[in-house]
Design a protein that fits this description.
The protein has 183 residues and is an alpha+beta fold. Helix content is 33%, strand content 30%. It is built from 6 helices and 7 strands; from the N terminus they run E-H-H-E-E-H-H-E-H-E-H-E-E. The structure holds coenzyme A. Coenzyme A binds next to strand 4, helix 5 and helix 6.
């Protein structure tokens, strides 16, 4: 088996990133069936992935056999705020996080691994790379769906990485748990 390579994402990865995120998208009425595997609720447009790659050095992909099989989007709080503004999707959750956390906080946004490669340690490899490539002593934060269905896979994964739950934020019909860590 060839090795899994973690690297920064480039524009050519965008179609694969969209495919992986869509592959983990689940209709709201079926979410409970996927709580233990996890689900991606907001796949992004190609334009949004490109903007993330352009603006943040913390957008990573996992590659195996020359195929992208997972990715992670992370940014500092000011970068995610300006990206959302540019995309015309200013988000209450990000606005709340920007009030709670300093500008050097790293927000881990989307992490999604193709279904056939989950539980192979790829999420952990992406975080290892992120930690090594981010000279950072501040806080890390992420949000995880708690309602209508708790994303149990994601909670367990982020707890394994050292994140702990701080509070919940309600946005429309979604309740999101806010998880943070300090390294
Ligand atoms: C959640 C997700 C990102 C984890 O990535 P992964 O590559 O499968 O996780 P890893 O193999 O690196 O797991 C590292 C550790 O996290 C924990 N973990 C990961 N997935 C888990 C699951 N489904 N259930 C319980 N614990 C889990 C385990 O402690 C695991 O270590 P172990 O396998 O030695 O027990 C992946 O399952 C996924 O993409 N799910 C669908 C999309 C999603 O829910 N994304 C998160 C919200 S955006």
């Amino acid at each position: 088996m060839s090795e899994i390579k973690i690297r920064k994402a480039v524009f050519e990865d965008v179609a694969s990133m969209q495919k992986i995120a869509s592959g983990n998208q689940v209709a709201v009425e079926n979410l409970s069936q996927y709580a233990n595997q996890g689900f991606t609720i907001w796949p992004r447009s190609a334009e949004a992935y490109k903007a993330s790659i352009e603006r943040s050095p913390h957008v990573l992909v996992a590659e195996w056999n020359n195929e992208v099989i997972g990715h992670l989007l992370a940014y500092t709080i000011p970068v995610v705020k300006s990206l959302n503004k540019e995309m015309g999707c200013e988000d209450d959750v990000i606005l709340s996080l920007s009030e709670m956390y300093g500008d050097d906080t790293v927000f881990v946004d989307q992490i999604t691994i193709s279904r056939s490669h989950q539980r192979e340690g790829i999420g952990q490899l992406l975080d290892d790379y992120l930690c090594k490539s981010t000279p950072h002593n501040g806080k890390w934060v992420t949000d995880i769906v708690h309602n209508p269905v708790k994303n149990i896979a994601s909670v367990k994964f982020f707890e394994k990485l050292g994140f702990t739950e701080k509070c919940e934020i309600v946005q429309d019909e979604w309740t999101l748990g806010v998880y943070e860590r300090s390294l």
